[in-house]
Amino acid sequence: MVRSFRRLVIPLIAVFCLQTPLATAQSDIPSLGDTARGELTPVAEYQLGKEIMVQVRSDPAYVNDPVLTEYLTNLGNRLVSADPQIRGELANDFSFFAIRDATLNAFALPGGFIGVHTGLLLATQSESELASVLSHEIGHVSQRHIARMLSQQRQDILIPIAATVLAILAAQAGGDAAGAVMMGGQGYAIQKQINFTRDAEKEADRVGFSILKGAGFDTTGMTSFFQRMQTATRTYSDAPSPYLRTHPLTSERIADIEARVRREPYRQHADDLDFYLMRAKARLVQDDSAPALQKAAAMFEEQIKSGSRLYMAAGNYGLALIALQRKEPAKARTYLQQVKKTVGEAAARQSLALDSLTVEILLASGQTADAVREARAATVRFPSSRALAHQYANALYAAKRYDEAAKYLRKQVQMYRDDATLQRQLAKVYDAQGKKALMHMALAESYALSGAYTAALEQLNLARKAGDVTFYDQSVIDAREREWKAIVKENLKERS
Asked: Which one, of 5, 143, 138, 155, lies nearest residue 75 by Cα?
């Protein structure tokens, strides 16, 4: 994992031309006024976040699970929609993603990119608790705390942002590796770089509380989560959890949140079924080794015995995922049927996670026609779901309905121009159709979206040499080549 840190951090050091010694890094925020605008504009902040996310997505700890990501995105967007001003003057979309890590942590990157450790997802006991964490991070973004922290260096984006990302993800290394990263004066400086001040934390609490309330969640979820963090820290470790290190929880903050909760009438929030299902998925995503799967299976069996409808559903769902991983689709189907029996068909049809699992089981069973039918019906129920769109395309490909798949994917890539997965799927379909030029062009687009511009340019060269390349293709290739070469040149200039 240390090597993965090097892959993440070294390119960032080059890109952002680190000139400030880490030992001089500061995170003091003397004023919460809008002092950052002159140095780090919202546009620059968003672009900075996009650049960092290219590196984060390439790290092995990044969870590339469409269903889990979509659940976090839907929950996050519900919170963001509670207040139209949250998106800021650029009205940027927020992005939510998971990190494969057992520690209890969450973090916000510049531009509205918010990460959640799988360990934190497992630690939350209600959807309101998870929503409270996301709303707090959204509060940091909406108040531009990161931009203010960076502007303190008075060097625009030429500050040690790579160290910030390293510290955020440092717990991934675990044990001695994490200690080695954080030891000494450099480690202290890295930690100081990401520690928001007390005033910033209180402001994020205030904004987060308002978001949580506006979105209809139980506001006591914020206090119950913080209490659980403190209890876990006292019980299991002498050192504070990563979340409490990066979000210092003072008695004043706790008292302030509790006072806000007391002033509000109690509002019960019914947890979404998918919250419990995604916690089961997160457990398996976090560690899919054979011993971990065996331990998880035993835990899922205990959940089924609990008598709680939602826990029973989550237990059977988890066992279905394990059965699929062990290439036992018939057994997975049995567990899925138990889930639907437990929650009822009406509730099951409102679950994106169960629709996705249904299609996955059919594909694993070789029932491609049924998979296409179920996937198409699911996309009708969830027309904006990217996860189901990917699955529908996979089902069409598995059924060898290449023309339909190509037509569908071309529409999807027009709607979602930032989706590298759709471009890879389209390339796969073009390859099956024998359309080599278009295959290489689609691959080039997928590489470019992932930040691998050199590989993207190589694919353009292969497309240009393909026997079936058309005059129109050539013009597209030339335009893309000019665009991407300019980006590569600019990146090299920044690194020199």
From this structure: 138
CA separation for the pair 130, 108 (Å, rounded): 15
pLDDT for 26:
33
Q: What is residue 233's predicted lDDT score, i.e. its pLDDT?
A: 59
Indicate the pLDDT class of residue 30, thresholds 50, 70 and 90: very low
Residues 53 and 62: their CA atoms lie apart, in Å, by 10
Q: How many CB atoms lie within 10 A of CB 234?
A: 10
Summarize the confidence of residues 194-211 as an average pLDDT. 75
Spatial distance between the Cα atoms of 98 and 169, rounded to a whole number of angstroms:
12
Q: pLDDT digit string (tens) for 132-144? A: 999 999 988 887 7
The answer to pTM > 0.70 is yes
Q: Is 321 helix (H, G, I), strand (E, B) or coil?
A: helix
The more confident residue out of 369 and 47 is: 369
95-99 and 113-117 as β-strands: parallel, antiparallel, unpaired? parallel
Average pLDDT in the 110-123 region? Answer: 92
* CA separation, residue 79 to residues 83, 144, 342 (Å): 8, 17, 29
> Which residues, other chains included, contact 386 with Cβ-Cβ below 8 Å and sequence gap of 6+?
66, 70, 416, 419
Rounded average pLDDT over 230-248: 57
Integer-rounded Cα Rg, in Å, for the chain is 24
The token pair that represents 153 in the structure block: 């260096």
Q: Taking a C-beta distance cutoff of 8 angstroms, is the pair 218, 267 a contact?
A: yes
Q: What is the rounded distance in angstroms from the CA atom of residue 175 to the CA atom of residue 246?
A: 18
| Strands in 321-402 per DSSP E | none
DSSP state at residue 434? T
Burial class (CB in 10 A: 0-12, 13-18, 19+), 344: exposed
Which two structure tokens, joined as six digits, stand for 393?
């395309």
The two three-digit tokens of residue 276, written as one number: 């419990």
Q: How far are the Cα atoms of 462, 484, 485, 494 from residue 489, in angstroms, in the given order?
A: 21, 9, 6, 9
Residue 115: strand pairing partners: 97, 107
* pLDDT band (50, 70, 90) for residue 241: low
List the Cα angle 445/447/453 in 5-degree steps: 100
In order, the DSSP letters of 169-224 are HGGGT-HHHHHHHH-HHHHHHHHHHH---HHHHHHHHHHHHHHHHHTT--THHHHH
β-pairing, 95-99 with 106-109? unpaired
Tallying the residues shown for the chain, one arrives at 496
Q: How far apart are CA 461 and CA 381, in angstroms?
A: 41
